[in-house]
């Protein structure tokens, strides 16, 4: 919301309060100020000029040589390229040595051989956006009013010496989306009552609005208030300069005197209005209803909109003429030929307006206010003031009465609070006099009975419904900075971490010890990315109103987010990357009884680039499957699950390399996967060869971990035996180690694979696997007979299970 300091000063005495002081005070009382801007800042030596003579440039087909009166004894010659420059108009002139927008300095010079003493400016060259400049002047220079004095600075005429305060309005304070709402707020801060000098309505009692038009509302719950006033005999023209500049400073493009009044009232009351050309309605009936499938409407922006049953439309009894609360139709817009105006003032269902606005991607000042809420008590008043202004500015006559389709009955909202309750919440020691003064300055009527306030909340503050809201109002106006600061009282207990928190911290420390850095990715992503790398089947959990398509669904994996992080780094030449993320994924079962998604804590790891960087004594070594698998083994060993973890090759995940991917099992339960990202997927993300792992961290936390048992180092020597096996290449090392461990006896301490060979002297389809077995007896020295017996059992079991050849 943009607030004009000059405009606000018309309702309150701000003569001793600067715009900067006002903005600081508003921020302290709960309405955040984004900034204060003075449009004329950075501009200088820009004055009013009058074009006395305008002739074509002899050496150009588009330039003109103008003799301009800038309030000096002699006329100043200026060469101008604007298509709408002509003699007899007053214009904006940048003198030699002046500065226009963009800190551009204007100098005296020559254009095609003719002297030019400055520049005749367009509004764009004074810093106005194309979106707010009147269309008549969007491609040329701006005409100043005839009563502007030649040589005067233009800034006061255009209200560029005003201070524009930008407010960041939270959804609960939609009352501040109007100048009247802001005036009440500022009045409360400075203990003033706003005085609104609204135009007084004068009606022609010879006719009534009902003679011109009748209104019917199909569903009064969706359209609680709808009324139309009729203004006849209007003459469409440009609005006066004060109204145009006021709208431009508020970010709205001036159109004509009728449409500009509706936008002015929108800003003043926060009440959206719409003006129809009465004659173009081709009907004396207005019907407000739901749209019908197959209906179409050409809106004011020239686009054809296909209407559905979820849209509320205004019709002439037969066909739609406007999208309720969003945008009017082009067939009934106000044009130069308009002589009679039908002025709509209404209240529409906020959800219906929001759906229509989203469907057609039409976000407007009107739709925003209907969505957030408007003052129900001023719907009719806003229409009356608008009708009076249109009659004044367009020379029309307001027909008496309103044609009403639905009318809202305002129900009083009464809320109670006591002084002790206020002080208990705020930690203050306010008395009744101080609290009464705050409610008085807020404009709240109340009764006080034995310390209890019964407040009748004004309709303009529809955000106040409970006791806590009143206490907040007292705190705001009293001043948050005046509330006392106190330390907590009472006994405290020592805090501690849960077992889950301890485990997660330990895992983070372990991964950082292996060289990985923590990453935090968005929980919202695209539907395609959310369904990649999934560890279980699930429905997608989508947002109803996403900010963008890239953030429209909840993730069901961590890897896609980590791949985005890697892509971001790789694009910036950071190619050696090791990241991990501890975060939640969101699954949803196809069960009508379970509406909400199920959250599961996961751990993701991603590696790419080199694990060893080339230097004078080390060769660069790229990461591979065993690099990331080694990180996982360190993790599992540290949390006491190494003996319960197994790996199983898989080709089931289409986003993973079919020959370099394994499922991770805790006992017989799959808790994750590890492997290389499929090359086609890596290409989509624009990353090099990348290895990833994702674990269900929740399953690890919930696993029953055996307590660590510390043992003395054996006093007796260990014995090592090697065994080399010729096996089918389909047999995994894990299967062989499992068989060895099962049959080697109780004295087996470790099994270590130290060689794998395929090639010359090895039959095709076979591989050689060499293991080192370590035995130790903590109570006695092992003898050869015991070791030989164990080895014989191992060899026999391997031959029976895998048909190996002992080499």
TrEMBL record:
InterPro entries, sorted: aa-tRNA-synth_II/BPL/LPL (IPR045864), B3/B4_tRNA-bd (IPR005146), DNA-bd_dom_put_sf (IPR009061), Fdx_antiC-bd (IPR005121), Fdx_antiC-bd_sf (IPR036690), NA-bd_OB-fold (IPR012340), Phe-tRNA-ligase_IIc_bsu (IPR045060), Phe-tRNA-ligase_IIc_bsu_bact (IPR004532)
Residues that bind Mg(2+): 463, 469, 472-473
Record-annotated TRNA-binding domain positions: 40-155
Molecular-function annotations in GO: ATP binding; catalytic activity, acting on a protein; magnesium ion binding; phenylalanine-tRNA ligase activity; transferase activity; tRNA binding
Keyword Ribosomal protein set for record: no
Location of the FDX-ACB domain: 714-807
Cellular component aspect of the GO annotation: phenylalanine-tRNA ligase complex
One Pfam entry name: tRNA_synthFbeta
Keyword line: Aminoacyl-tRNA synthetase, ATP-binding, Cytoplasm, Ligase, Magnesium, Metal-binding, Nucleotide-binding, Protein biosynthesis, RNA-binding, tRNA-binding
Domain of life: Bacteria
Record note on cofactor: Binds 2 magnesium ions per tetramer.
Gene Ontology annotations of biological process type: phenylalanyl-tRNA aminoacylation
Cofactor(s) demanded: Mg(2+)
PANTHER family: PHENYLALANINE--TRNA LIGASE BETA SUBUNIT, PHENYLALANYL-TRNA SYNTHETASE BETA CHAIN AND LEUCINE-RICH REPEAT-CONTAINING PROTEIN 47
UniProt subunit comment: Tetramer of two alpha and two beta subunits.
Annotated family: Belongs to the phenylalanyl-tRNA synthetase beta subunit family. Type 1 subfamily.
Protein name (record): Phenylalanine--tRNA ligase beta subunit
Encoding gene, per UniProt annotation: pheT
